[in-house]
Design a protein that fits this description.
With 422 residues, this protein is mainly alpha-helical. The chain contains 17 helices and seven strands. It folds into three domains: 100 residues, no CATH class; 114 residues, HUPs (Rossmann fold, 3-Layer(aba) Sandwich), CATH 3.40.50.620; 179 residues, Isoleucyl-tRNA Synthetase, Domain 1 (Orthogonal Bundle). The strands form three sheets. It has a three-stranded antiparallel sheet with strand order 1-2-3. A two-stranded parallel sheet has the order 4-5. A two-stranded parallel ribbon has the order 6-7. A hairpin with a 7-residue loop joins strand 2 and strand 3. The chain is elongated and about 90 Å long. GO terms for molecular function: arginine-tRNA ligase activity; ATP binding. It comes from Elysia marginata.
Length: 422
């Protein structure tokens, strides 16, 4: 907000032709650059680094504005609401592209006061303490951690203040929950250890069911992304890149030659998103990932498009055979490959249960990849439509249909669309 106020010249998403979240992100980066420059200037003038970070003029202004925000200053609140609306509108556009939606949203601006109430109770019980400057801390050295700031000296909140309030609000809204899973990157491991410990110390027994699903970060071939420094590939750019990569590879492979032009764009989005999600979800969440867009769109590897293409192939096969009214009772002549496929089909429920219990969608991703590998080998070596025996044809068609149903179901669990045609 401060950076936009100082350097924005009234710029808006409309005047800049930028998505709202991208515009606000631009000023996030500008703030950081000006701040670092001012800190360095103070250091050059003889101020030690710790004090230089506190005395930088743009930082001082941000601190003052935060205090005004908490005091409900009308001008600050109005600008905050305006810039927030830009961000949320931009986020919503991206979430729609990714096929993401939420049952309920919690805003830190609405939970920080509840967090302050929690901290006040902790002070009354002697679990938390104030330093001479008025800041509030918790000492977790007996638990193998250290001291943690909970409220600044000027009384303004920090991340953990808001997280304390949000935890209470969620339990209040959903009193019957049996666990709460925080899906946040492993750079926040320490933060969540502290959060859960504080709640436990304050006597909230339900915090014992809280769990931090700590996931490894995703790198791109160009290296780690840092939003403050502007070295970030935003989701919209990545989505566009994935769609473009899907288009190029699909055209080279001749996968879309028979599709009408209007259907191609939708399909490239479906393939691109399938590639992106599957590439990331097939890996154990705790492992760090190097994401390579081109490698993720391979119609012959352990990828989303490989699985999507197999589904489309099965749908094409079934449409030629008119299987809508197929009825089948018993078949005793299954080949070794068919028995192998049936065994893999039987592993579906245990795989899904294991994925749920271990909070690891990679188990589902790798299950369906193994199923698709088996089916493709079967499809290449076994006649289906050209089978002369009617019972054998029915069995093979229904086996194919079952595999197709499982592909669609498991991809849906991973948030991936199974296209009918490719």
């Amino acid at each position: 907000m401060v950076a936009w106020h100082l350097y924005g010249n009234g710029e808006t998403p409309q005047t800049s032709k930028l998505k709202g979240d991208a515009l606000v992100g631009k000023y996030y980066v500008i703030f950081d650059k000006i701040y670092k420059k001012e800190v360095q200037t103070l250091i050059d003038e003889g101020v030690d680094e710790e004090n230089a970070k506190k005395q930088a003029p743009i930082f001082q202004k941000a601190v003052a504005w935060l205090q005004k925000w908490e005091d409900n200053d009308p001008d600050i609140i109005q600008l905050w609401k305006t810039m927030n609306s830009w961000v949320y509108k931009g986020f919503e556009e991206t979430y729609q592209k990714l096929g993401v939606d939420f049952h309920k949203l919690y805003y830190e601006s609405e939970t920080y006061l509840l967090g302050k109430e929690v901290i006040e109770k902790g002070l009354e019980k002697g679990i938390l303490y104030k330093k001479n400057d008025g800041s509030v801390w918790v000492d977790l050295s007996n638990e193998g951690l250290d001291e943690k700031l909970l409220l600044r000296a000027d009384g303004t909140s920090v991340y953990i203040t808001q997280d304390l309030g949000t935890a209470l609000k969620r339990v209040e809204d959903f009193p019957d929950i049996t666990s709460m899973i925080y899906t946040v990157g492993n750079e926040q491991d320490y933060h969540f250890k502290v959060l859960f410990l504080i709640l436990k110390k304050l006597g909230y027994s339900w915090s014992n069911s809280f769990f931090h699903l700590s996931y490894g970060m995703v790198d791109l071939p160009d290296g780690k992304m840092k939003s403050r420094e502007g070295t970030v590939v935003d989701a919209d750019t990545l989505i566009d890149e994935m769609e473009d990569t899907a288009r190029k590879i699909s055209e080279e492979a001749g996968k879309t030659t028979n599709l009408p032009e209007e259907g191609k764009k939708s399909l490239y989005h479906t393939i691109g998103m399938g590639a992106l999600k599957f590439f990331i979800l097939k890996v154990d969440p705790q492992k760090r990932i190097l994401f390579n867009p081109k490698e993720s769109i391979d119609f012959n590897g352990n990828t989303g498009p490989f699985i999507q293409y197999t589904y489309a192939r099965i749908k094409s096969l079934l449409s030629k055979a008119h299987t809508d009214n197929l009825v089948f009772e018993r078949y005793t002549n299954a080949t070794a490959k068919e028995k192998e496929l049936i065994k893999q089909i039987e592993k579906l429920k245990p795989a899904v249960m294991h994925a749920a219990d271990s909070l690891n969608p990679g188990i589902v991703a790798n299950y369906v990849y193994d199923l698709v590998k088996l089916y493709n080998s079967y499809y290449q070596s076994t006649p289906i439509l050209n089978t002369q025996d009617e019972d054998t044809k029915k069995f093979r068609l229904l086996l194919s249909k079952k595999v197709g149903d499982i592909i669609k179901y498991t991809l849906a669990l991973l948030g991936i669309t199974a296209p009918e045609q490719m």
